[in-house]
Amino acid sequence: MNFTFKKNERLCSKTIIDSLFEKSKFINAYPLRLSYLEYDYSDDIPGQVVFVVSKRRLKKAVDRNRTRRLIREAYRLQKHDIYSIEERKFAMAISFNGKEPLDMETARKSISKIITKLKEQYA
């Protein structure tokens, strides 16, 4: 299994991101929240994802960037579980809802819970 996070796995389309936050489904695993929407795109990857850390939650840019980096790393290491959901393609946004900067262990546990719940819904 290749544990990379390539450009085509990032969600960059403004229109898809807008529709994602308007009409998506949610999965909560404090301090993270997954907003997801099924949609079809040409690549053969199961999901495109964007990571969101609000300025309202973490005031310092250093804390926001570090938290976003840790969430991205935790997702990168566990994304192979999403590949097991057959014939589904998702647009996903992983949002940080905590009040304190995140550590790696909490990020890994939350991402694991989110992916498990997503797999249960589509199994």
Question: How would you characterize this protein structure?
Answer:
The chain is α+β, with helices and mostly antiparallel strands and 123 residues long. It has one domain: Ribosomal Protein S5, domain 2 (2-Layer Sandwich), CATH 3.30.230.10. 37% of the residues lie in helices and 21% in strands. It has 3 helices and 4 strands, in the order H-E-E-E-H-E-H. The protein has a 4-stranded mixed β-sheet with strand order 1-2-4-3, with helices on both faces. A hairpin with a 2-residue loop joins strand 1 and strand 2 (32-38). Helix 2 packs across helix 3 (104-121). The radius of gyration is 14 Å and the shape is globular. The mean pLDDT is 91.
Compile the SSE list and pairings:
Elements: H1 14-22, E1 25-29, E2 32-38, E3 47-53, H2 61-78, E4 90-96, H3 104-121
Parallel strand pairs: 3-4
Antiparallel strand pairs: 1-2, 2-4
Helix pairs in contact: 2-3
